Amino acid sequence: LKQGIKMDLAPLLHALMIIIGFGIVFLIIMGLEHYYLIKQKQEAYDLKETIANIFSAVLYKTMDGIYLIFFLGIVAAWIKSNGLGWNVPITWWSILLIFIAQDFFFYFAHLFAHKFRIGWVTHKIHHSSKHFNFGVALRQSLLAPIPLFGIFSIVWLPFVFMGVDIKVVAFIYELNLFYQFFIHTKTIDRLPKWYEAVFNTPAHHRVHHGCAESQIDTNFGGVFILWDRLFGTFKDEAQVKPIVFGVKSRPITTNNVVVMIFEELIDLIKTTWKAKDLRVLFRHPDWKSEKSEK
Fold first, then answer.
1. Residue 37 pLDDT
2. Which residues contact 219 (CB under 8 A, 6 or more apart)?
3. Considering only CA atoms, which of 14, 19, 122 is closest in space to residue 69?
4. First vs last C-alpha separation in the chain
5. pLDDT higher than threshold 90 for residue 236
6. Could you tell me if 123 and 144 are in contact, meaning their C-beta atoms sit under 8 angstroms apart?
7. Which of 283, 258, 273 is CA-nearest to residue 52?
8. 210 has which bridge partners?
9. DSSP β-bridge partners for residue 224
């Protein structure tokens, strides 16, 4: 780094404290859900899969921290050292606006991850489980924070360029993800109509995790379902039952976390090389080049 740009580890430590706090809450709630499912004689947690989900979450958040320091941290330091960015006041209304804007950007980043194989490389792991419980919310890829594979940076960069403190941006985004944890469950049925009209809910998100034709590529919103209603990607659970969880193409059949994370990337490289067709990178995950099938 050139003189005048200093690395700040405070955002990482701040994010780490948030993650540990949220993580403890998540584990307690997962335990309660598992106990409830057993009492109700419903399908409970698969131990091996749950351990794999937790391990994948640890790797994901570790990479997230690295991204926070070595990418966003450098960008933020450069902006500050050059006197760029706005002096955005941190008030309840600015936090609310950032929260809403982040969720709006999340919608498009999430849609990209579903519509293009280069993005699906980071997101397939999350959808690959045939179960749907709070533990699946933790099932993430360490590739997700890497800008090469997707556009999730858009939930961070606009605010960093505006000069908003990274700690504030990270905290607001973690609140978004905290909410999303609670929509990964079958134990909550429908919520009041006014709430489901505005916010993402377990019923809406169950549809998103479905792999039947009527369920694929729907309900991309994080906290707000309004974006899906606005852009025509919303489907109500009552319209598309029964929900079939999992992925349509190249299902994952192992709890080996390394395989879970990298198998789609390896397959994408092989398919692209065999097809000699770069369009594979930007086609839908279920699309196949004729050359790749020969």
1. 97
2. 200, 204, 205, 207, 208, 225, 228, 233, 234, 235
3. 14
4. 49
5. yes
6. yes
7. 258
8. 245
9. 199
